[in-house]
Specification:
Layout (H helix, E strand, L loop, with lengths): L1 H24 L2 H11 L3 E6 L10 H13 L4 E4 L2 E2 L2 E2 L4 H6 L15 H11 L3 E2 L8 E3 L3 H5 L14 E3 L2 E5 L5 H17 L4 E5 L12 H10 L12 H25 L4 E5 L3 H8 L3 H6 L5 E5 L5 H7 L3 H7 L4 E6 L1 E2 L2 E2 L2 H13 L4 E5 L2 H4 L6 H11 L16
């Protein structure tokens, strides 16, 4: 019996040793692929042209993507619709806005999105373009000036919504012509680029103080026997009616995406449900229940760790995790709001302890370029967090919660 046990142990050790030798004899990329099979975790980052120049030079963009791969990130969410312009050459934008591309000098003569798709895929990164501005636009933008009928307003007919120091206006998500424009932009990207998914956030809704423009009020009256909407923008029925209209549009967008590319993931990166719904009419809990979300990255940009921890435990978050990969968006800093590497590590560890699908950081520059800590210290921190590669947890690749 003892001899048999010893013989079995020897055989097991021999087999494991042979497997190790076989793996080590494989090319490096194959070894990496095997290692990746052992860990599935979203490691994403948002790239934007706000407080960042990463898009504006081909070489710097390429190096940024290579660096992300070096530090074992696996997903990028590049903004493609910001400041009232597309960040890629767009025939749809040319027809509606009069400009096919953001006029910033560094973008001219290039297709920034195609560069990200090509280099990103070369580095093994999942590429999911992000509609950062959604229905929002700068108050002085071409689209606001040329399409004033598209803008929505408060009860007192004011339209400007402050975002920090910036004056914003909002396109009405209830108008068919506005919906067509936004959907056409989305479909244009899905059809023309080899992307892995497309992402929306709370800006795919509308600040709940808005919606009192003439078109929307007339539509509401038509569906309520002539009754006008409540004077209280937070009135439950008025909130629900507008949120349902946005949900209907989200369903049409989802259907259009899948009709053009069935393997294009639909990703949403909202705030916690209560805030998204009450302040932006973005009822992502309902979207998730309807099967309109295939990748949820919940933005929890909190310095108070107790608040951060509690928002991971909301019932709608737990419910979503039963169906789809749910990851957590963590703030790595803003231009005027630094976040320490220690806070980032603590939040990442909590997300891992609770076995979420992964994390994504807002935003690229504050990973290591904009910080009160030295770049090398920040990079060492990410190296400790992500010592080995990991695969992107895709619902379409057989992800299981």
């Amino acid at each position: 019996m003892r001899q048999s046990l010893k013989s079995g142990l020897f055989s097991a050790v021999f087999i494991l040793s042979m497997l190790a030798v076989m793996i080590l004899s494989l090319p490096l990329k194959a070894q990496t692929a095997i290692a990746q099979q052992q860990t599935s975790e979203l490691r994403g980052v948002w790239l934007t042209n706000i407080d960042s120049d990463v898009f504006f030079e081909r070489d710097s963009l390429q190096k940024a993507l290579q660096k992300l791969d070096t530090f074992n990130f696996n997903t990028v969410y590049p903004a493609v619709w910001n400041w009232g312009y597309t960040l890629y050459p767009s025939k749809v934008a040319a027809q509606v806005i009069g400009k096919s591309l953001d006029p910033t000098r560094g973008l001219q003569g290039r297709d920034m999105l195609q560069e990200i798709v090509t280099e990103g895929h070369k580095q093994g990164l999942t590429v999911i373009p992000w509609f950062e501005f959604g229905f929002m636009a700068p108050a002085d933008s071409l689209i606001a000036k040329n399409r004033p009928q598209w803008l929505t307003s408060r009860r007192d007919d004011t339209k400007i919504v402050k975002e920090g120091t910036h004056d914003r206006v909002w396109l009405s998500p209830f108008r068919p012509d506005v919906q067509k424009f936004i959907q056409d932009l989305i479909v244009e990207i899905v059809k023309n680029y080899n992307i892995d998914g497309i992402q929306f956030d709370d800006h795919f809704g509308l600040p709940s103080e808005l919606g009192y423009d003439a078109y929307t009020v007339a539509l509401y009256k038509k569906e309520h026997r002539g009754q006008a909407p409540s004077k209280n923008p937070k009135d439950p029925e008025w909130l629900r009616w507008r949120a349902n209209k946005i949900t209907d549009f989200m369903k049409r967008v989802f259907t259009a995406i899948k009709a053009n590319k069935k393997n294009c993931l639909v990703s949403v990166a909202p705030n916690p449900q209560r805030f998204s719904y009450e302040y932006f009419l973005a009822d992502w809990q309902k979207w998730e229940r309807m099967g309109l979300i295939e990748d949820l990255v919940l933005q929890i940009y909190r310095d108070d760790l107790n608040v951060f921890f509690s928002e991971l435990e909301y019932p709608e978050v737990k419910a979503a995790r039963k169906h789809i990969p749910v990851s957590i968006g963590i703030l790595s800093g803003l231009k005027n709001r630094p976040v320490s590497m220690q806070q980032i590590k603590t939040q990442v560890q909590k997300v891992r302890d609770l076995k979420f699908a992964g994390i994504s950081f807002f935003f690229y520059e504050t990973l290591w370029n904009i910080s009160q800590e030295k770049a090398l210290e920040r990079q060492a921190g990410f190296q400790q967090m992500f010592p080995k590669p990991a695969t992107y947890p895709s619902l379409l690749a057989g992800w299981k919660g």
